[in-house]
Amino acid sequence: MEESARARAQQVAAGFTESASDYEGAVRYNLDGVRRLVAALPERDYSELLDVGCGTGWSALTFIARFGPRRVIGVDPASGMLDVFREHAQKLDDVEIDLIEADVMNMPVEPESADAVICTMAMHWFADKAGAVREMAARLRPGGLLAVLAGGEGVEAEYRQLLESIDPPVPAHWPALYDTAPTSERQMHGFLDSAGLKAIDVWIERRFRQTPVDDFLERMRVVASHLSEGMDTDELEGHQRRIREAMLAQAGPNGFEYHFSKLFAIAAKPA
Fold first, then answer.
1. Architecture of the CATH domain 3-155+181-210+260-268
2. Could you give phi then psi for residue 86, rounded to 5 degrees?
3. Between the chain's N and C termini, which has fewer beta carbons within 10 Å?
4. Sheet strand arrangement including 140-151
5. In this predicted model, what pLDDT tens digit does every residue of 119-139 receive, in sequence order?
């Protein structure tokens, strides 16, 4: 991994460690998406599951509830998220849980050791998405399945436009994040093809949402606090104040209106 990409991964991990205790309460829509992804997987025996970017373990828990794997390996670079996962894991019986603090590009997981690999709401943070898919595919046994949930093309376009309209401007890398984070169906097909996987289904769900401004900003604090790392407190508070004022001015009677897109992908490794 290039040094700049490594630094970015560490920065993202630090942000999620800081907000780990608030994560599940702030991202209920993500948890709903995980349920739909797991429900779309074909019924079969998945003895060993690898969860990449496992976070607090919600996706693995959803998978366990449906398929009952014998072993789950969770990989995430954010130690705080893994700590929450460990708390959840204490309530589980009959499944071995191994949690590893690592990045997707440096996973100490044996090749062809998993029957299924899941990656939910993490891929849009990966600097090298094609490389990440190859790394995940390499851990699949022949015939195994990869299931991905990520931010989709066009996500939160209204919020990005609002950020770009604020004067004095917010840091340029805040709205620029949307240049690299979302993924289209065509891009995902390309990532799967280059990793030697066969796409079973790739689709995007697009939702129109009306959300109280402070609820929206709380979610952004939880999932994107790393974007303000190292910033002077007064400067950060000034940006946050102007963003909130702009959102309140734009919000309708039911809150800030925006679209959110989630990309789903299920692919198989040829047997």
1. 3-Layer(aba) Sandwich (3.40)
2. -60, -40
3. C
4. 96-101, 71-76, 48-52, 114-120, 140-151, 256-268, 198-211
5. 999 988 888 999 999 999 999
Interval 147-181: pLDDT, tens: 999 999 889 999 999 999 999 999 998 998 888 77
For the segment 221-244, what is each residue's pLDDT rounded down to a tens digit? Answer: 887 777 888 889 999 999 999 999
Q: Which residue has the tokens 């943070």?
A: 125
Q: Is 80 exceeded by the pLDDT of residue 18?
A: no
For the chain, the structural domain boundaries read 3-155+181-210+260-268
What distances in angstroms separate CA 8 from CA 44, 61, 81, 87, 107, one per listed residue? 37, 28, 17, 27, 17
Q: What stretches of 5-158 adopt beta strand conformation (E)?
A: 48-52, 71-76, 96-101, 114-120, 140-151
Collapse the DSSP code of 9 into the 3-class scheme (helix H, G, I; strand E, B; otherwise coil) and give the result: helix
Structure pTM? 0.86
Q: Which is it for strands 114-120 and 140-151: parallel, antiparallel or unpaired?
A: parallel
Alpha-carbon distances, residue 188 vs 71, 73, 81, 199 (angstroms): 28, 24, 26, 9
The token pair at 93 is 């019986």
Strand segments (E) across the chain: 48-52, 71-76, 96-101, 114-120, 140-151, 198-211, 256-268
Q: What is the DSSP letter of 226?
A: G
Cα distance from N-terminal residue to C-terminal residue, the chain: 30
- The answer to whether 125 and 182 are in contact (CB under 8 A) is no
CB atoms within 10 A of CB 14: 16
Measured between alpha carbons, how far is residue 42 from residues 45, 63, 70, 100, 145 in Å? 10, 12, 18, 27, 9
Beta strands in 69-186 (DSSP E): 71-76, 96-101, 114-120, 140-151
